[in-house]
Task: inverse folding
């Protein structure tokens, strides 16, 4: 952000939304700090309501607690054309559109995105958020790219798997990565499975296809780090 402001001699603001919300629901103010612009998605636009709601009970959660970002306002779509079930799954009985994004709201009403609902890992009844673990692992100097995925497990329901692409010429081992993770995260957030990959399966827009990673691992395509 600092480079953009310097090179183009312009201000920079972050916005957030999706097609179903026509499209924007939050934006920064022109005089917000660089820290807020980099680390939040701003505050709701006028006449737009946003709430952070629990995944299991669809109730508003406390400030600074992770939940699903939900939107209510004139911006919301009417329906998915010709798909009543998809519409009912997205817009609840009270008119809240469920974005599928996980996030938090602070005491000032600024929102942050922390991941996607479909990527959330439920380990022994406790919710784990891949983006939190991925952001920590990306700080490791030997890791170029990383994706954290939930893998099926008989005891815990799901366990955490970490798939990584090392920086060119660098090697990593499981013990080193586990120790690094334990320094920066609580023990239950430490991945159980560690796999090194040469390339990630990507969507057309360049996003990692995590369900393909999971399927490929279960098919035995990715050997675990030792």
Result:
């Amino acid at each position: 952000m600092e480079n953009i402001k310097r090179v183009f001699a312009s201000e920079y603001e972050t916005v957030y939304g999706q097609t179903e919300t026509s499209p924007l629901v939050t934006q920064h103010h022109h005089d917000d700090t660089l820290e807020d612009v980099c680390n939040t998605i701003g505050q709701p636009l006028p006449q737009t309501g946003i709430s952070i709601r629990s995944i299991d009970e669809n109730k508003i959660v406390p400030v600074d607690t992770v939940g699903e970002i939900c939107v209510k306002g004139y911006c919301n779509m009417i329906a998915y054309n010709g798909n009543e079930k998809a519409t009912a799954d997205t817009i609840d009985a009270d008119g809240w559109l469920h974005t599928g994004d996980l996030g938090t709201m602070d005491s000032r009403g600024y929102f942050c995105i922390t991941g996607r609902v479909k990527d959330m890992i439920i380990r022994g009844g406790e919710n784990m958020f891949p983006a939190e673990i991925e952001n920590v692992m990306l700080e490791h100097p030997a890791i170029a790219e990383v994706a954290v995925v939930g893998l099926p497990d008989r005891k815990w329901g799901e366990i955490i798997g970490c798939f990584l692409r090392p920086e060119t010429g660098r090697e990593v081992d499981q013990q080193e990565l586990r120790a690094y993770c334990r320094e920066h995260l609580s023990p239950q957030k430490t991945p159980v499975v560690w796999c090194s990959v040469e390339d990630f399966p990507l969507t057309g827009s360049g996003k990692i296809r995590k369900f393909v990673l999971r399927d490929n691992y279960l098919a035995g395509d990715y050997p675990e780090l030792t």
In short: The radius of gyration is 19 Å. The chain is about 20% helix and 30% strand.
